[in-house]
Specification:
Shape: globular
Helix content: over 70%
Largest sheet: none
Structural class: mainly alpha
Number of domains: 1
Order of helices and strands: HHHHHHHHHHHHHH
Number of helices: 14
């Protein structure tokens, strides 16, 4: 009961943060101006973006099938594809729940142990995190001045002006808020440490065994180079999904490959924030800040961030519905046998 209550509270808090960030962002967005730009935009590039987006799903499905195969099981491509599509759809609404949904979908159709499937999904997440770290390092090397300017403008300066400087000057409200935050963090740490200790040992052992098998599945891969190639192509597609959006408008077409690299890196970090709607609000603010660093106005930054996120949202929902359709048709055929 405590776990469920905490999950509900966490969901509500994250939703509140997302709604608040969206309110701040869209409250200053010129909707009439954006509407006029959309009317005059060249949206034939949208088809290219959608094609590349589908390729991401295909490549991720093929890569996941390799991991499942490495633990001694086989899956049909369409079943794995539908599970992946459904998981992104679910994660968009409830962050992190999509991974569980993906495993349950495949287990329902192939009777593969859930914990083993979860292990393969976790190793996928680890690979994605490592890939993002590599991308971040590459961006720092190739776009060092712009990234440092972004950090200075959006992290160091606000922290110094709004928090550190007020603490130095003896602002009691900020000092009390900082102390309260420290107390809350300490209490949460103590609570979770106690919570973990109270968990059932059998459940932990079962989870660790399944997790271990999933993580070691990479070592069992017969085609490691192909796995790396799939991962590389996935990130190339992510890059192109962002880059092709630049050409929808003449004004944004001047953005360079370096700008796309920075937007992809910072935007991915924004989307990774566990807020409903694919990091809604956080993604918009971060991408807008990056676009401004490359010489465009804040208005264009907001418009581009809004369109990219809206396009990804539409695609996620559309593919989620396709995934559900494939799942129910496949399950119906299986039940008729």
């Amino acid at each position: 009961m405590k776990s469920k209550a905490f999950q509900v509270i966490q969901y509500i808090l994250l939703l509140a943060v997302g709604v608040y960030l969206c309110f701040l962002f869209f409250n200053t967005l010129d909707f009439e101006g954006l509407k006029a730009k959309i009317i005059n935009g060249n949206f034939s590039w949208l088809y290219v973006v959608m094609f590349v987006s589908i390729m991401v799903y295909v490549l991720r499905t093929l890569r996941w099938q390799m991991l499942i195969r490495s633990i001694g099981h086989e899956t049909k491509f369409l079943n794995a594809f539908s599970a992946l599509s459904i998981s992104y759809f679910v994660s968009f609404v409830v962050p992190r729940l999509g991974e569980v949904t993906r495993c349950l979908s495949v287990k329902k159709q192939h009777d593969i142990p859930f914990m083993q499937l979860l292990g393969t999904v976790i190793i996928e997440r680890i690979v994605d995190i490592v890939s993002l770290i590599i991308l971040l390092c590459l961006t720092l090397v190739l776009q060092f001045d712009q990234i440092m300017s972004f950090v200075q403008t959006n992290i160091f300066d606000p922290f110094y002006d709004k928090i550190l400087l007020k603490i130095i000057n003896g602002n009691m409200v900020v000092i009390i808020a900082a102390l309260a935050l420290m107390v809350i963090c300490g209490a949460l740490f103590i609570y979770f440490r106690k919570y973990i200790r109270e968990r059932s040992p059998k459940l932990v052992v079962k989870f660790v065994e399944g997790l271990k098998e999933g993580i070691t599945s990479v070592l069992k891969l017969k085609q490691k180079k192909l796995f790396i190639l799939y991962t590389f192509l996935i990130w190339v597609c992510y890059y192109l999904m962002t880059y092709f959006w630049f050409f929808v408008f003449e004004e944004t077409s001047v953005l360079t490959w370096g700008a796309c690299l920075s937007i992809l890196t910072i935007g991915t970090i924004g989307r990774s924030v566990p807020i409903q709607g694919g990091g809604m609000g956080a993604y918009h603010f971060l991408v807008t800040s990056v676009v401004v660093l490359y010489g465009l106005s804040e208005t264009w930054g907001k418009d581009l961030a809004t369109l990219i996120h809206a396009g990804q949202t539409f695609f996620t929902f559309a593919m989620g519905l396709v995934g559900l359709l494939i799942f129910f048709v496949s399950y119906w055929k299986m039940e008729r046998r």
